[in-house]
C-alpha cells in the first residue's frame, strides 16, 4: 500500500482529487521511474566503447524497494577513466 502524504495546495478540488487518486498517481510514478531507469541504462550501454565486455557486464540498474527511485551503476574499476563521471552513477 502506498504511503499517504498530507497535501495542502489551497485548492479544495485539487486536494480532493489527490486524496482520491493518490495511490494511482504513485503507481504511475513507479512505472515512470522504471521506464526512465531502463532508458538511461540502455543509453549508457549503447554509448560504451567496445572492449572485452567487462565494462558492459559491470553495468547494472536497480529500482528501490519503494519503487520511487532508480539507479544505474558501473562497477568496473576503470569505468571512470573511460566514461564521463556523470555517466558512472545516475540516480533517477
Can you give a write-up of this model?
With 92 residues, the chain is of the alpha+beta class. It has one domain. It is 48% helix and 14% strand. It is built from three helices and three strands, in the order ααββαβ. The protein has helices at residues 12-47, 54-57, 79-82, and strands at 59-63, 70-74, 89-91. It has a three-stranded antiparallel beta sheet with strand order 1-2-3. β1 and β2 form a beta hairpin. The protein starts with 11 loop residues before the first helix and ends with a strand. The mean pLDDT is 78.
List keywords for this structure.
92 residues, alpha+beta, 3-stranded antiparallel β-sheet, rod-shaped
Topology overview:
Blueprint: H1 12-47, H2 54-57, E1 59-63, E2 70-74, H3 79-82, E3 89-91
Antiparallel strand pairs: 1-2, 2-3
Amino acid at each position: 500500500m502506498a504511503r499517504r502524504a498530507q497535501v495542502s495546495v489551497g485548492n479544495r478540488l485539487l486536494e480532493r482529487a489527490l486524496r482520491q487518486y493518490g495511490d494511482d498517481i504513485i503507481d504511475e510514478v513507479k512505472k515512470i521511474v522504471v521506464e526512465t531507469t531502463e532508458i538511461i541504462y540502455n543509453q549508457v550501454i549503447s554509448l560504451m566503447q567496445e572492449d572485452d565486455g567487462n565494462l558492459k557486464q559491470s553495468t547494472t540498474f536497480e529500482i528501490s524497494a519503494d519503487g520511487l527511485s532508480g539507479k544505474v551503476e558501473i562497477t568496473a574499476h576503470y569505468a571512470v577513466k573511460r566514461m564521463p563521471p556523470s555517466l558512472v552513477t545516475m540516480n533517477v
